Amino acid sequence: MPDMELLIEAVNNLGKPKLTDFATLGIALISLVISWVALRFTKNQRDISQRAERLEIHTELLDILHYLKHYNGSCDEASEEYFRRLLKLKAISKSAYSEEASTFINTVLTNMHDMPVRYSAYLKEVSEETAKALEAMGIDPNVHDALACQYFELKRFFQKTAFVEFERLFPV
Question: What's the rounded Cα separation, in Å, for the pair 96 and 160?
Fold first, then answer.
């Protein structure tokens, strides 16, 4: 029976907390606090990175819109460069902004792409022979005038509407 008492006493002693148990608990709590601080720091760094990305997109798009405000539809190296920049913006803006903002960038891209044809129609008058040939092919000879009107609508879009939408969709 004395062995049984020793066994019971040994089991009871196992259940009592020791100094090493308190030290382990303290280290675990310190590690938990350090992990929480690291998590907060990582979240803050991610937020800073997202703000920097959004600011970069905002600045780039504003620069493009200022160029398009004075864009007349001519095809030159500058317009091609801005078109490429707009394509690059379209690709990276989906993660940083809303779907509506991406749609706006697509609209600006489409309007910039459509501008040279309308500009050409605005500059050139349709001759009588060309009008008759268009009519013979079943095409409305007044399509030239419609394209010229669309040219002015696109100019108005780039001069005013685009900036209003930009302020609404791309806050700093």
Answer: 24
Q: Are 101 and 169 in contact (CB under 8 A)?
A: yes
Q: Is 120 exposed, middle or buried (0-12, 13-18, 19+ CB in 10 A)?
A: middle
Q: What is the largest CA-CA distance in the chain?
A: 125
Mean pLDDT of 99-124: 86
Quick: pLDDT tens for 29-59. 999 999 999 999 999 999 999 899 889 999 9
- The neighbour count for residue 123, using CB atoms within 10 Å, is 12
Mean pLDDT of 14-42: 91
**Cα distances (Å, whole numbers) of residue 81 to 67, 85, 156, 164:** 11, 6, 22, 24
The amino acid at residue 38 is: A
Contact status, residue 23 vs residue 65, Cβ threshold 8 Å: no
Task: Quote the DSSP letter at residue 159.
Answer: I
**Distance of alpha carbon 109 from alpha carbon 91, whole angstroms:** 12
Which of 32-36, 55-59, 72-76, 135-139 is the most confident on average?
Answer: 32-36
**Exposed/middle/buried for residue 158 (C-beta within 10 Å: 0-12, 13-18, 19+):** buried
